[in-house]
Amino acid sequence: MTHGSEKKAVAPRTAELVDEVRDSAKAGTEAATKALRRFRDTVDQALPGSVQPLRKKIVDAAIELADQLVDAQYKFHRSIVRSADRALNKPEDEKK
User: What is the spatial distance between Cα 24 and Cα 18, in angstroms, rounded to a whole number?
Assistant: First the structure.
C-alpha cells in the first residue's frame, strides 16, 4: 500500500470514529437530561410546595452536577478523537 492510499484509508476511519464519539456524546447528554427529569419529578413529589426554595436549590445543584458530568464526558471524547487521529495519521516510519 502506498503512503497516499494509506492516508485515504485513514480518513474514513477517522471520520467513523468522530461519528461514533459524537453519537456517544449525544446519547450521554440525552441520558443526563432524562435522569434530571426523573430527579426533578422525584423531588417535586417528595417535597411539598411550602419548601420551594429548598426544592429549587436541590434541583439547581443536580443540574449543575449533570452539566459538569456531560462537559467532562465531552472533553474525554474529544481527547479520544484527537489521540486516535494522531495515531491513525502518523507517518508509517513513526509507527514502528
Answer: 10
Torsion, CA 84, CA 85, CA 90, CA 95, rounded to 10: 10
The secondary element (H helix, E strand) that includes residue 20 is: helix 3-46
Where do the domains of the chain lie? 22-91
Contact 73, 28 (CB under 8 A): yes
Cβ atoms of 89 and 14 within 8 Å: the answer is yes
Q: 91: which residues sit within 8 A by CB, 6+ positions away? A: 3
At 10 the pLDDT is 61
Alpha carbons 51 and 79: distance in angstroms, whole number: 42
Ramachandran angles phi, psi of 90, nearest 5°? -65, 135
pLDDT at 12 (0 to 100): 76
Secondary structure tally for the chain: helices H, strands E: 3, 0
Q: Give the residue-averaged pLDDT of 73-94.
A: 80
